[in-house]
Amino acid sequence: MPYEWIANGTITTATGFLASGVSCGIKPAGQLDLALVASQRPCAAAGAFTTNRFPAAPVLYSRALLAKNPARVWAVLINSGCANACTGEEGLADARETATLAAQALGCPPDGVLVLSTGVIGVRLPMEKLRAGIPLAAQALAPDGGAAAARAIMTTDTQPKACAVRTEIAGQPVTVAGMAKGAGMIHPNLATLLSVIATDASATPAVLQTILRRAVERSFNAITIDGDTSTNDTLLLLANGGSGHPPVSDPQAPEATALAEAVEAVAIRLAQSIVRDGEGASHFVTITVRGALHDADARRAAMAVARSSLVKTAIYGGDPNWGRVLCAVGYSGAEVDPARTSLWFGDLALVAGGKPLDYDESQAAEVLRQPEVTITVDLGLGAGQATVWTCDLTHKYVDINAHYRT
Amino acid sequence: MPYEWIANGTITTATGFLASGVSCGIKPAGQLDLALVASQRPCAAAGAFTTNRFPAAPVLYSRALLAKNPARVWAVLINSGCANACTGEEGLADARETATLAAQALGCPPDGVLVLSTGVIGVRLPMEKLRAGIPLAAQALAPDGGAAAARAIMTTDTQPKACAVRTEIAGQPVTVAGMAKGAGMIHPNLATLLSVIATDASATPAVLQTILRRAVERSFNAITIDGDTSTNDTLLLLANGGSGHPPVSDPQAPEATALAEAVEAVAIRLAQSIVRDGEGASHFVTITVRGALHDADARRAAMAVARSSLVKTAIYGGDPNWGRVLCAVGYSGAEVDPARTSLWFGDLALVAGGKPLDYDESQAAEVLRQPEVTITVDLGLGAGQATVWTCDLTHKYVDINAHYRT
């Protein structure tokens, strides 16, 4: 194993990163709503942003900043409670002002701060509160502030999401640490949700971008909660070089591979933790499709099953209604031969070569009584495979989303 | 108006069609579960079938029969309670046997009967019950049997769905009548759900197919309840020529247009009635996107809004969270310029030219308190437009689908 997990890791487990989470009054009840992650050295950075055609102001701002200045990023400012999306020119000016205020408070160059927002769409940032809150967040920066920061970026999340791994690059110990938020409006499209991964490794922005793009495909782009791709989804990867090894500049080098594996492990863990905390979720569901013509087909089929409201409600209800799984595979667009298709719930075979098996219904129901459910489909056509993660669709999901703003 | 609605119309309102609905024991509680629609003269017929790659046995059977014999169809046999899908070769043999039994009972040629099934996937038809039930259904055929037939094809539907219009072709009064079922696993893809439209007009199979294909696009393919495309979706159009006008053989003729308009009216009414009866639905939602680059883009955007769990739960909760609507438009794949986009709930303008308006929140909430909600998006880019219909996502939807089989 090229990396190992660090117990209770947070974003500040990576050397040279400070963080804070404060309450500046965006959320009404005084919850933490403003997080700051700052590096003691400038970072090389990479980002993946939502493909939504209404990108939020902070997405526009941060994407442009990263395109111009990927090698000297000092900090990321994140607010919850307001997405600053669909807010036009004024929203973009607000995003720019918060970035500038954070840079002033940190004493770094004005283009050294990335900004992210999450919360209600269509409402402008309460700038008076942010003007007061940003200096407080800067003052609160601490080497053990990762837990507070992870908490400050939550919206409908019930749990903060953070983790860290240790690996070795060029003989030096390196930490890759991350945090994320997200429980609804989760469906892959390049990147989903908000997540920041920080490492004390040293790498060029180009190497980081390559690593990030691949990690996203196998992590955040392999989960869905409700099929909605948000306006604000952003994943950032910051590397401050604090571990002291020579910079990694060749994406093919073994050092790049070690870093990529560690980043991918953190990204998958964070993505899975988002699904585990999916709005109203009572089951964590792993869907694997194998035997597809190619990986893309397997992905398409697995994601159709993961998105199906009928599959998700059946899992919630403990009803092993496997026909809904094949139905979703059937409309996914993947190449299918019904007579070659096999299906398992957990280890229990339900369909083999297109034929329903005479399985024990109570055993199938028992599979669904577990909090973690695995569904496997073998299309019997080729070597393509994919695994995606989702959660069930519950009464509580409807509760949460029927009255999100009220 | 080229057609007029007939009060309490059912499929037997069309001249020369008989129907019945009986209970043969497929459903446990003795509900009606077997419908037969039979014509007193052979029909020209057209069909649209699911694009799901696991087409049910009755879909395979009826599609093949129509390809071979579209000009001499005598009847349609429909059972509820069992979809006969994912049942392999045996399921296909069962479908064939039911068609043959119905033809025997009716005294028509063996290839004169189409079969449709709806219900649980992955379970074989209880053939003993059907062997006993099919003759009963044939005996029960009556000129006023349309209401019983519409009831016998219901699954999670709470209301039977039937209607009829009268038009005139070549000076002769013509009736177009239909019935449908469907409340879940509803998402367009060529055809969705089960529906039979019968007319006493006279037309060639080719004209009927043209008419059907166009009507489907603006009716059954413009609705979604849960985004799932079923394995059994089938729409049939039967024309028995009972009204006595000369056969319509030119799809461009004014007679074809009159028939097409009547068929489309019936198809739209049936499709809307399915949405009104959507599983657990408490709101009927009309989504219109206009100003798109082209109609296909408008359709894509409208359907993304209609499918969004977040939009649907917000409507259920009476929360005018319009950001979710723009978010869905943004990930739909349609060409969008945020600065040109405008949005209305009912008549209330919420966004104009990309800017959130200072609207009255209580007025917006009032729009959502109505049982019928209209959402209009203007993309400000071109002349493309589309209207689709959907319902909200409620606690009751989860109730119904968590325990469908149990």
Descriptive report:
- With 406 residues, the first copy, chain A, is an alpha+beta fold.
- Chain A folds into two domains: 3-276, L-amino peptidase D-ALA esterase/amidase (4-Layer Sandwich); 284-402, ArgJ beta chain, C-terminal domain (Ubiquitin-like (UB roll), Roll).
- The first copy, chain A, is 33% helix and 25% strand.
- Chain A contains eleven helices and 15 strands.
- Chain A has helices spanning 57-68, 88-106, 127-139, 146-152, 205-218, 254-276, 295-307, 309-317, 323-331, 361-369, 395-402; strands at 3-5, 17-22, 34-49, 73-79, 113-117, 161-169, 172-181, 194-199, 234-239, 284-292, 342-345, 348-352, 355-356, 372-378, 384-391.
- In chain A, strands 1, 2, 3, 4, 5, 6, 7, 8 and 9 form a nine-stranded mixed β-sheet that branches. A six-stranded mixed β-sheet of chain A has the order 13-12-11-14-10-15.
- In chain A, helix 5 links the parallel strand 8 (194-199) and strand 9 (234-239).
- In chain A, helix 7 packs across helix 9 (323-331).
- The longest helix of chain A is centred in the middle third of the chain and has 23 residues, at 254-276.
- The interface between A and B is large, with 67 and 67 residues.
